[in-house]
Specification:
The chain has helices at 8-35, 54-90, 108-157, 162-190, 201-218, 237-254, 312-322, and strands at residues 48-49, 52-53, 197-200, 222-226, 232-235, 260-268, 273-279, 326-331, 337-344. The longest helix has 50 residues, at 108-157. The radius of gyration is 35 Å and the shape is elongated. The protein is built from seven helices and nine strands. Helix 1 packs antiparallel against helix 2 (54-90) and helix 3 runs antiparallel to helix 4. The protein has three domains: 8-93, no CATH class; 130-190, Signal transduction histidine kinase, dimerisation/phosphotransfer (DHp) domain (Helix Hairpins, Orthogonal Bundle), CATH 1.10.287.130; 197-344, Histidine kinase-like ATPase, C-terminal domain (Heat Shock Protein 90), CATH 3.30.565.10. Strand 8 and strand 9 (337-344) form a beta hairpin. The protein has a five-stranded mixed sheet with strand order 4-6-7-9-8, covered by helices on one side. Strands 1-2 form a two-stranded antiparallel sheet. The two termini are 18 Å apart. By secondary structure, the chain is α+β, with helices and mostly antiparallel strands. It binds adenosine-5'-triphosphate and magnesium ion (MG). Adenosine-5'-triphosphate is lined by residues 182, 246, 250-251, 254, 280, 282-285, 293, 298-300, 303, 308-314, 337. Residues 182, 246, 250-251, 254, 280, 282-285, 293, 298-300, 303, 308-314, 337 line the site of adenosine-5'-triphosphate.
Length: 348
Protein backbone atom coordinates (compact mmCIF):
# COMPACT_ATOMS: atom_id res chain seq x y z
CA UNK A 1 0.00 0.00 0.00
CA UNK A 2 1.14 3.56 -0.68
CA UNK A 3 2.76 5.20 2.36
CA UNK A 4 3.48 8.90 2.45
CA UNK A 5 6.96 9.92 3.49
CA UNK A 6 8.34 13.46 3.53
CA UNK A 7 10.31 13.77 0.30
CA UNK A 8 12.77 16.30 -1.05
CA UNK A 9 10.07 18.75 -2.16
CA UNK A 10 8.56 18.65 1.32
CA UNK A 11 11.90 19.50 2.94
CA UNK A 12 12.50 22.24 0.40
CA UNK A 13 9.18 23.86 1.20
CA UNK A 14 9.79 23.58 4.90
CA UNK A 15 13.24 25.08 4.54
CA UNK A 16 11.84 27.92 2.42
CA UNK A 17 9.28 28.83 5.08
CA UNK A 18 11.94 28.71 7.74
CA UNK A 19 14.16 30.98 5.68
CA UNK A 20 11.18 33.30 5.29
CA UNK A 21 10.64 33.47 9.03
CA UNK A 22 14.32 33.89 9.85
CA UNK A 23 14.58 36.68 7.26
CA UNK A 24 11.67 38.54 8.82
CA UNK A 25 13.14 38.23 12.34
CA UNK A 26 16.53 39.30 10.98
CA UNK A 27 14.79 42.32 9.41
CA UNK A 28 13.27 43.30 12.78
CA UNK A 29 16.60 42.80 14.56
CA UNK A 30 18.43 44.92 11.96
CA UNK A 31 15.83 47.63 12.37
CA UNK A 32 16.36 47.78 16.15
CA UNK A 33 20.11 47.69 15.64
CA UNK A 34 20.17 50.53 13.12
CA UNK A 35 17.77 52.83 15.01
CA UNK A 36 19.12 51.97 18.45
CA UNK A 37 15.54 51.65 19.65
CA UNK A 38 14.17 48.87 21.84
CA UNK A 39 11.38 46.49 20.92
CA UNK A 40 7.80 47.80 20.74
CA UNK A 41 5.71 48.46 23.70
CA UNK A 42 8.73 50.06 25.54
CA UNK A 43 9.35 52.72 22.86
CA UNK A 44 7.28 55.61 21.73
CA UNK A 45 7.33 57.61 18.56
CA UNK A 46 7.78 54.85 15.99
CA UNK A 47 5.41 54.49 13.06
CA UNK A 48 2.66 51.96 13.74
CA UNK A 49 -0.29 50.38 12.04
CA UNK A 50 -2.66 49.97 14.93
CA UNK A 51 -0.48 48.58 17.63
CA UNK A 52 1.99 46.94 15.26
CA UNK A 53 5.18 48.77 14.30
CA UNK A 54 5.48 49.33 10.53
CA UNK A 55 9.15 48.40 10.05
CA UNK A 56 8.95 44.71 11.08
CA UNK A 57 5.72 44.34 9.09
CA UNK A 58 7.33 45.77 5.97
CA UNK A 59 10.41 43.61 6.56
CA UNK A 60 8.33 40.42 6.98
CA UNK A 61 6.17 41.38 4.01
CA UNK A 62 9.16 41.89 1.73
CA UNK A 63 10.86 38.67 2.95
CA UNK A 64 7.73 36.58 2.37
CA UNK A 65 7.18 38.22 -0.99
CA UNK A 66 10.71 37.46 -2.18
CA UNK A 67 10.77 33.88 -0.85
CA UNK A 68 7.19 33.26 -1.97
CA UNK A 69 7.93 34.44 -5.47
CA UNK A 70 11.03 32.30 -5.71
CA UNK A 71 9.13 29.30 -4.35
CA UNK A 72 6.19 29.79 -6.67
CA UNK A 73 8.52 30.09 -9.64
CA UNK A 74 10.47 27.05 -8.57
CA UNK A 75 7.29 24.96 -8.32
CA UNK A 76 5.11 26.29 -11.08
CA UNK A 77 7.66 26.37 -13.89
CA UNK A 78 8.28 22.58 -14.05
CA UNK A 79 4.56 21.92 -13.60
CA UNK A 80 3.91 24.14 -16.59
CA UNK A 81 6.49 22.17 -18.55
CA UNK A 82 4.74 18.96 -17.59
CA UNK A 83 1.41 20.40 -18.61
CA UNK A 84 2.82 21.47 -21.95
CA UNK A 85 4.27 17.99 -22.49
CA UNK A 86 0.97 16.32 -21.56
CA UNK A 87 -0.85 18.48 -24.08
CA UNK A 88 1.67 17.61 -26.79
CA UNK A 89 1.26 13.89 -26.06
CA UNK A 90 -2.53 14.30 -26.16
CA UNK A 91 -2.12 15.95 -29.58
CA UNK A 92 -0.24 12.87 -30.75
CA UNK A 93 3.36 14.17 -30.59
CA UNK A 94 4.68 11.07 -28.86
CA UNK A 95 8.31 12.14 -29.27
CA UNK A 96 7.83 14.88 -26.64
CA UNK A 97 10.26 14.64 -23.71
CA UNK A 98 10.16 16.85 -20.65
CA UNK A 99 13.34 15.90 -18.79
CA UNK A 100 15.71 18.16 -20.78
CA UNK A 101 13.59 21.12 -19.61
CA UNK A 102 14.16 20.26 -15.96
CA UNK A 103 17.83 21.24 -15.98
CA UNK A 104 19.81 19.83 -13.07
CA UNK A 105 16.84 19.64 -10.78
CA UNK A 106 16.59 16.60 -8.52
CA UNK A 107 13.38 16.16 -6.52
CA UNK A 108 9.93 14.61 -6.87
CA UNK A 109 9.10 16.86 -9.81
CA UNK A 110 12.26 15.72 -11.62
CA UNK A 111 11.26 12.11 -10.81
CA UNK A 112 7.81 12.81 -12.23
CA UNK A 113 9.40 14.19 -15.40
CA UNK A 114 11.51 11.03 -15.66
CA UNK A 115 8.43 8.82 -15.23
CA UNK A 116 6.59 10.94 -17.78
CA UNK A 117 9.37 10.46 -20.33
CA UNK A 118 9.44 6.72 -19.64
CA UNK A 119 5.68 6.59 -20.29
CA UNK A 120 6.11 8.60 -23.50
CA UNK A 121 8.83 6.22 -24.73
CA UNK A 122 6.62 3.20 -23.99
CA UNK A 123 3.63 4.80 -25.71
CA UNK A 124 5.76 5.63 -28.74
CA UNK A 125 7.11 2.05 -28.92
CA UNK A 126 3.62 0.57 -28.59
CA UNK A 127 2.22 2.86 -31.26
CA UNK A 128 5.11 2.07 -33.59
CA UNK A 129 4.70 -1.69 -33.09
CA UNK A 130 0.94 -1.37 -33.67
CA UNK A 131 1.64 0.45 -36.92
CA UNK A 132 4.06 -2.26 -38.05
CA UNK A 133 1.58 -4.96 -36.99
CA UNK A 134 -1.25 -3.29 -38.87
CA UNK A 135 0.94 -3.02 -41.95
CA UNK A 136 1.94 -6.70 -41.66
CA UNK A 137 -1.67 -7.79 -41.13
CA UNK A 138 -2.82 -5.94 -44.25
CA UNK A 139 0.02 -7.49 -46.21
CA UNK A 140 -0.73 -11.01 -44.90
CA UNK A 141 -4.44 -10.66 -45.63
CA UNK A 142 -3.78 -9.32 -49.09
CA UNK A 143 -1.61 -12.26 -50.26
CA UNK A 144 -4.36 -14.94 -50.13
CA UNK A 145 -6.88 -12.44 -51.52
CA UNK A 146 -4.59 -11.73 -54.47
CA UNK A 147 -4.28 -15.48 -55.09
CA UNK A 148 -8.08 -15.87 -54.94
CA UNK A 149 -8.45 -13.04 -57.50
CA UNK A 150 -5.82 -14.67 -59.71
CA UNK A 151 -7.64 -18.02 -59.49
CA UNK A 152 -10.94 -16.36 -60.42
CA UNK A 153 -9.21 -14.68 -63.39
CA UNK A 154 -7.80 -18.00 -64.58
CA UNK A 155 -11.18 -19.66 -64.06
CA UNK A 156 -12.80 -17.07 -66.34
CA UNK A 157 -10.18 -17.53 -69.04
CA UNK A 158 -10.19 -21.31 -68.95
CA UNK A 159 -13.34 -22.90 -67.43
CA UNK A 160 -11.76 -26.32 -67.98
CA UNK A 161 -9.53 -25.64 -65.00
CA UNK A 162 -12.50 -25.09 -62.71
CA UNK A 163 -11.80 -28.09 -60.47
CA UNK A 164 -8.23 -26.99 -59.68
CA UNK A 165 -9.11 -23.32 -59.31
CA UNK A 166 -12.07 -23.96 -56.99
CA UNK A 167 -9.79 -26.15 -54.88
CA UNK A 168 -7.27 -23.33 -54.78
CA UNK A 169 -9.88 -20.74 -53.82
CA UNK A 170 -11.12 -23.06 -51.07
CA UNK A 171 -7.60 -23.49 -49.62
CA UNK A 172 -6.92 -19.75 -49.70
CA UNK A 173 -10.26 -19.16 -47.96
CA UNK A 174 -9.28 -21.61 -45.24
CA UNK A 175 -5.94 -19.85 -44.87
CA UNK A 176 -7.67 -16.50 -44.46
CA UNK A 177 -9.99 -18.01 -41.90
CA UNK A 178 -7.08 -19.47 -39.90
CA UNK A 179 -5.21 -16.17 -40.04
CA UNK A 180 -8.19 -14.21 -38.77
CA UNK A 181 -8.80 -16.77 -36.04
CA UNK A 182 -5.17 -16.44 -34.85
CA UNK A 183 -5.33 -12.66 -35.00
CA UNK A 184 -8.44 -12.71 -32.85
CA UNK A 185 -6.74 -15.01 -30.32
CA UNK A 186 -3.77 -12.66 -30.16
CA UNK A 187 -6.08 -9.68 -29.75
CA UNK A 188 -8.02 -11.38 -26.96
CA UNK A 189 -4.76 -12.08 -25.17
CA UNK A 190 -3.62 -8.48 -25.56
CA UNK A 191 -6.75 -7.52 -23.63
CA UNK A 192 -5.40 -9.80 -20.91
CA UNK A 193 -8.64 -11.57 -20.02
CA UNK A 194 -8.66 -15.34 -19.62
CA UNK A 195 -10.69 -17.44 -17.21
CA UNK A 196 -8.65 -19.92 -15.16
CA UNK A 197 -9.50 -23.48 -14.28
CA UNK A 198 -7.61 -26.38 -12.69
CA UNK A 199 -5.95 -28.30 -15.49
CA UNK A 200 -3.53 -31.22 -15.54
CA UNK A 201 -1.02 -29.74 -17.99
CA UNK A 202 0.71 -33.12 -18.49
CA UNK A 203 -2.58 -34.67 -19.66
CA UNK A 204 -2.99 -31.76 -22.05
CA UNK A 205 0.56 -32.26 -23.31
CA UNK A 206 -0.07 -35.98 -23.98
CA UNK A 207 -3.20 -35.12 -25.94
CA UNK A 208 -1.30 -32.63 -28.12
CA UNK A 209 1.60 -35.06 -28.57
CA UNK A 210 -0.73 -37.86 -29.60
CA UNK A 211 -2.44 -35.73 -32.27
CA UNK A 212 0.87 -34.32 -33.51
CA UNK A 213 2.40 -37.81 -33.70
CA UNK A 214 -0.62 -39.09 -35.63
CA UNK A 215 -0.24 -36.30 -38.19
CA UNK A 216 3.56 -36.58 -38.23
CA UNK A 217 3.40 -40.30 -39.09
CA UNK A 218 1.42 -39.47 -42.19
CA UNK A 219 4.53 -37.69 -43.49
CA UNK A 220 7.01 -40.27 -42.09
CA UNK A 221 8.05 -38.17 -39.11
CA UNK A 222 7.33 -39.08 -35.52
CA UNK A 223 7.22 -37.70 -32.03
CA UNK A 224 8.24 -39.09 -28.65
CA UNK A 225 7.20 -37.66 -25.30
CA UNK A 226 8.61 -38.08 -21.82
CA UNK A 227 6.76 -36.42 -18.94
CA UNK A 228 6.11 -36.83 -15.21
CA UNK A 229 2.83 -38.13 -13.75
CA UNK A 230 0.88 -34.90 -13.44
CA UNK A 231 1.13 -31.14 -13.00
CA UNK A 232 -2.15 -29.58 -11.98
CA UNK A 233 -2.17 -25.78 -12.27
CA UNK A 234 -4.67 -22.90 -12.39
CA UNK A 235 -4.50 -21.99 -16.06
CA UNK A 236 -6.61 -21.11 -19.04
CA UNK A 237 -6.61 -24.57 -20.64
CA UNK A 238 -7.33 -23.25 -24.13
CA UNK A 239 -4.41 -20.79 -24.16
CA UNK A 240 -1.95 -23.23 -22.62
CA UNK A 241 -3.05 -25.82 -25.19
CA UNK A 242 -2.33 -23.37 -28.01
CA UNK A 243 1.02 -22.38 -26.51
CA UNK A 244 2.30 -25.97 -26.46
CA UNK A 245 0.56 -26.97 -29.67
CA UNK A 246 2.13 -24.16 -31.71
CA UNK A 247 5.63 -25.07 -30.60
CA UNK A 248 5.15 -28.83 -31.09
CA UNK A 249 3.53 -28.37 -34.50
CA UNK A 250 6.42 -26.15 -35.60
CA UNK A 251 8.89 -28.86 -34.57
CA UNK A 252 6.98 -31.45 -36.63
CA UNK A 253 6.45 -29.07 -39.56
CA UNK A 254 10.11 -28.11 -39.88
CA UNK A 255 11.51 -31.63 -39.30
CA UNK A 256 12.98 -33.51 -42.27
CA UNK A 257 11.39 -36.79 -43.28
CA UNK A 258 12.16 -39.66 -40.96
CA UNK A 259 13.17 -37.35 -38.10
CA UNK A 260 11.94 -37.71 -34.53
CA UNK A 261 10.63 -34.73 -32.54
CA UNK A 262 11.38 -35.00 -28.82
CA UNK A 263 9.11 -33.50 -26.15
CA UNK A 264 10.48 -33.76 -22.64
CA UNK A 265 8.87 -32.32 -19.51
CA UNK A 266 10.17 -32.22 -15.95
CA UNK A 267 9.08 -30.55 -12.76
CA UNK A 268 11.64 -28.16 -11.27
CA UNK A 269 11.80 -25.44 -8.61
CA UNK A 270 10.51 -27.52 -5.66
CA UNK A 271 7.64 -28.89 -7.70
CA UNK A 272 6.40 -25.44 -8.61
CA UNK A 273 7.51 -25.11 -12.24
CA UNK A 274 6.92 -27.30 -15.27
CA UNK A 275 9.76 -27.10 -17.78
CA UNK A 276 9.10 -28.55 -21.23
CA UNK A 277 11.72 -28.83 -23.95
CA UNK A 278 10.63 -29.41 -27.56
CA UNK A 279 13.56 -30.39 -29.79
CA UNK A 280 13.74 -31.10 -33.50
CA UNK A 281 16.35 -31.78 -36.16
CA UNK A 282 15.01 -29.26 -38.66
CA UNK A 283 16.91 -26.36 -40.27
CA UNK A 284 16.97 -24.43 -36.97
CA UNK A 285 16.90 -20.65 -36.69
CA UNK A 286 19.89 -18.28 -37.12
CA UNK A 287 21.28 -16.94 -33.83
CA UNK A 288 20.13 -13.35 -34.52
CA UNK A 289 16.52 -14.47 -35.09
CA UNK A 290 16.09 -16.61 -31.97
CA UNK A 291 14.23 -13.75 -30.30
CA UNK A 292 12.49 -12.12 -33.27
CA UNK A 293 10.66 -15.33 -34.33
CA UNK A 294 8.35 -14.59 -31.37
CA UNK A 295 7.21 -11.39 -33.09
CA UNK A 296 4.09 -11.67 -35.28
CA UNK A 297 4.72 -12.56 -38.94
CA UNK A 298 8.46 -13.12 -38.57
CA UNK A 299 9.64 -16.04 -40.70
CA UNK A 300 13.12 -17.29 -41.32
CA UNK A 301 14.16 -16.56 -44.88
CA UNK A 302 15.48 -19.34 -47.07
CA UNK A 303 13.42 -22.04 -45.37
CA UNK A 304 11.21 -24.16 -47.56
CA UNK A 305 7.90 -22.35 -47.90
CA UNK A 306 6.07 -24.17 -45.12
CA UNK A 307 2.76 -22.35 -45.00
CA UNK A 308 1.60 -20.82 -41.76
CA UNK A 309 0.08 -17.58 -40.59
CA UNK A 310 3.31 -16.61 -38.79
CA UNK A 311 1.50 -15.95 -35.52
CA UNK A 312 2.00 -19.27 -33.72
CA UNK A 313 5.04 -18.35 -31.63
CA UNK A 314 3.70 -14.86 -30.84
CA UNK A 315 0.59 -16.55 -29.43
CA UNK A 316 2.68 -19.10 -27.51
CA UNK A 317 4.81 -16.43 -25.89
CA UNK A 318 1.87 -14.20 -24.95
CA UNK A 319 -0.04 -17.19 -23.53
CA UNK A 320 2.93 -18.31 -21.41
CA UNK A 321 3.59 -14.76 -20.18
CA UNK A 322 -0.05 -14.40 -19.16
CA UNK A 323 0.53 -17.36 -16.85
CA UNK A 324 3.77 -15.99 -15.42
CA UNK A 325 5.83 -18.36 -17.56
CA UNK A 326 8.05 -17.91 -20.58
CA UNK A 327 9.14 -19.51 -23.84
CA UNK A 328 12.59 -19.20 -25.39
CA UNK A 329 14.30 -20.78 -28.37
CA UNK A 330 17.89 -21.97 -28.68
CA UNK A 331 19.98 -23.63 -31.35
CA UNK A 332 20.34 -27.34 -30.72
CA UNK A 333 23.76 -28.95 -30.63
CA UNK A 334 24.06 -31.09 -33.76
CA UNK A 335 21.45 -29.03 -35.67
CA UNK A 336 17.82 -28.14 -35.18
CA UNK A 337 15.87 -26.03 -32.75
CA UNK A 338 15.15 -26.42 -29.06
CA UNK A 339 12.24 -24.50 -27.55
CA UNK A 340 11.91 -24.36 -23.76
CA UNK A 341 8.54 -23.52 -22.20
CA UNK A 342 8.37 -22.84 -18.47
CA UNK A 343 5.07 -22.71 -16.63
CA UNK A 344 4.83 -21.94 -12.90
CA UNK A 345 2.06 -23.41 -10.74
CA UNK A 346 0.83 -19.93 -9.98
CA UNK A 347 1.88 -16.45 -11.14
CA UNK A 348 4.59 -14.87 -9.02
N1 LIG B 1 11.12 -25.67 -35.06
C1 LIG B 1 11.48 -24.74 -35.95
N2 LIG B 1 12.52 -24.94 -36.81
C2 LIG B 1 12.87 -23.97 -37.69
N3 LIG B 1 12.29 -22.77 -37.78
C3 LIG B 1 11.26 -22.52 -36.98
C4 LIG B 1 10.80 -23.47 -36.01
N4 LIG B 1 9.78 -22.91 -35.33
C5 LIG B 1 9.59 -21.70 -35.86
N5 LIG B 1 10.47 -21.44 -36.85
C6 LIG B 1 10.57 -20.21 -37.65
O1 LIG B 1 9.88 -19.19 -36.96
C7 LIG B 1 8.83 -18.65 -37.77
C8 LIG B 1 7.66 -18.23 -36.89
O2 LIG B 1 7.01 -19.35 -36.37
P1 LIG B 1 5.45 -19.26 -36.03
O3 LIG B 1 5.05 -20.54 -35.39
O4 LIG B 1 5.22 -18.01 -35.29
O5 LIG B 1 4.78 -19.10 -37.46
P2 LIG B 1 4.40 -20.18 -38.55
O6 LIG B 1 4.65 -21.55 -38.03
O7 LIG B 1 5.09 -19.77 -39.81
O8 LIG B 1 2.84 -19.93 -38.70
P3 LIG B 1 1.66 -20.40 -37.69
O9 LIG B 1 2.31 -21.00 -36.51
O10 LIG B 1 0.94 -19.12 -37.38
O11 LIG B 1 0.84 -21.34 -38.48
C9 LIG B 1 8.52 -19.76 -38.75
O12 LIG B 1 7.94 -19.26 -39.91
C10 LIG B 1 9.88 -20.35 -39.00
O13 LIG B 1 10.58 -19.56 -39.93
MG1 LIG C 1 3.87 -22.16 -36.12
Amino acid sequence: MYKWRPGRLFWKLLLALWVCMILSIAGVATYFQLTGRGPPPSVDGIARIGVLPVAPLVSAGVAILVTGLALAWYLSRPLQHLRWALRRIAEGHLDTRVQPLMGRRSDEIADLAQDFDRMAVRLQQLTESRKVLLHDISHELRSPLTRIQAAIGLLRQDPAQSEAMIGRIGREGERLDALIEELLTLHRMEAGVAARERVDVIELLYAIAEDADFEARASSRSLVIEAPGQFVADVNGDLIYRAFENVIRNAVKFSPEGAVVEVSSRIVGDGRVLETVVSDRGPGVPEHMLESIFQPFTRVEGQEPVHGAGLGLAISRRAMEMHGGQVVAARRAGGGLEVVLTLPLRDA
